[in-house]
Amino acid sequence: MDSFAFMIHPLDESDVTKKYSAARFVPKFIIAQMLKHAPPFKASDITGVTSKYNKIDGSFVTCPLTAKQMISLPESFVINKIIQAGKVAEQLGAKILGLGAYTSVVGDAGLSVAKNLKIPVTTGNSYTVATAIEGAKLASCKMGHNLDEVKVAIIGATGSIGSVCAEILARDVKTLILVGKDEVKLHRLANRILYDTGLVAKISLDLRQSLKHADVVICATNSVEILINPEDLKPGAVVCDVSRPRNVSRRVAELRNDVLVIEGGLVEVPGDVNFNLNFGFPPGMAYACMAETMILALEKKYESYTLGRDVSIKQVMEIDKLAKKHGFRVAGFRSFEKAVTEVEINSIRDNAMRKVLVTETA
User: Fold this and answer.
1) Can you say whether the dihedral through the CA atoms of 107, 110, 115, 119 is positive or negative?
2) How many CB atoms lie within 10 A of CB 62?
3) How far apart are CA 234 and CA 303, in angstroms?
4) Which residues does 176 contact at the CB level (< 8 Å), separation at least 6?
5) Cα separation of 183 and 51, whole Å?
6) Which of 37, 54, 72, 312 has a CA that sits 20 to 30 A from residue 150's CA?
């Protein structure tokens, strides 16, 4: 049978306490040390992924390092641990490996990992881009925004996901704001967008100022910090956060009932799928990066599909087409581990309209 594996890791020490209740009584720094020395392992079996063309099984394999550890520990140590987790996937019989969360970010974004394994590797970034754009467009429509009239900001625009999101959305929007830290790279991206689409994209190094003017925000950074807070956003804003860990503060959902925050890249997997692991989603739902690995296995396309820092528009379009062929689809909206209903979206839109009216008449 065609098979796959997907690599996961704890985002922080609290993920360990969720799985092992006894760990609640252990100080975080001790948990971090234990993770540093723990070997990679299989977390669970994945069964029932089925399209009308194929049926596959898979496994979650765990690289036991937190996001901060993956950034702060020596790069060679972290990459070696990811490679060792990849070898666990090989031993399980996987024919392709997907890299999840920070295992796809460290070092050269999967290139070194792929060179040291016998099976192909993908980061899942191509399908993440496709679903982020689809989700952001759908959410914007439900909030009453027309993309050809509103301002769209891409946070982390020079990254592998952010840059492709910007290039694709440039064909549909009127105003595009590219936000990042490297002005040279931002100008380079803006010039490429101008050449390819004719759109004059704005660039900004000022995150706060950009957010205040944006109607739609796609956040796709590699930062482990909170970047977007309640006071940063305008009424009616749609924020699609594809960063892991999240860059949007949970306080936004708690304090701003006039702003819609969605998790980018969440899809419904075809078949009677069982992940045998609770990562906070309803049954049959997965991140797009996970789904990309499944799509490639269902298609028997065993190749290192998305690796390195560059994601091409061609890759995004191809994987989106294959996803639809095998029955994957954007699975509505979720915000901070909870489904967002149509009633809630309507309420957010109404609250935003009232707030705008109050501001205009004040």
Assistant:
1) positive
2) 23
3) 43
4) 151, 152, 153, 154, 166, 169, 170, 193, 199, 201, 202
5) 45
6) 312
Tokens 């979206």, located at residue: 345
pLDDT at 318 over 70: yes
Residue 74, exposed/middle/buried by CB under 10 A (0-12, 13-18, 19+)?
Answer: exposed
Q: Which amino acid is at 201?
A: A
Give the bridge partners for 61, in sequence order. Answer: 7, 42
More confident call, 352 vs 358: 352
Of 161, 153, 200, the residue nearest 178 (C-alpha): 153
The pair of three-digit structure tokens given for residue 160, joined into one six-digit string: 């592998």
| Measured torsion, CA atoms of residues 335, 336, 338, 340, in degrees rounded to the nearest 10 | -10
Q: Please state, in angstroms and rounded to a whole number, the distance separating the CA atoms of residues 99 and 307.
A: 10
For the beta carbon of residue 342, count every other beta carbon within 10 angstroms: 10
Give the distance, in angstroms, between the CA of residue 32 and the centroid of all CA atoms in the same chain. 24
Q: How big, in percent rounded to 5, are the helix, strand and coil portions of the chain?
A: 45, 20, 35
Alpha-carbon torsion 321, 325, 50, 332, what sign?
positive
- 45-88: per-residue pLDDT in tens? 999 999 999 999 999 999 999 988 998 999 999 999 999 999 99
All domains in the chain, ordered by first residue:
3-126+271-330 (no CATH), 129-265+333-361 (3.40.50.720)
Residues 6+ apart with CB under 8 A from 134: 320, 330
Tell me what pLDDT residue 151 has.
95
Q: How far apart are CA 63 and CA 6, in angstroms?
A: 10
Please name the residue that has the structure tokens 């898979």. 58
Cβ atoms within 10 Å of 304's Cβ, excluding its own = 20
Q: What is the pLDDT of residue 352?
A: 94
